[in-house]
Amino acid sequence: MALIAPSLLSADFLHLQRDCDMLNNSEADWFHL
Q: CA–CA separation, 3 vs 1, rounded Å?
């Protein structure tokens, strides 16, 4: 089974809070800073 690990570098930095909230509500296994 593959792990999902989105990266903060792909976030929209003008809407960083929105993107972080989206990641927190997602089913991502890991989160790259």
A: 7
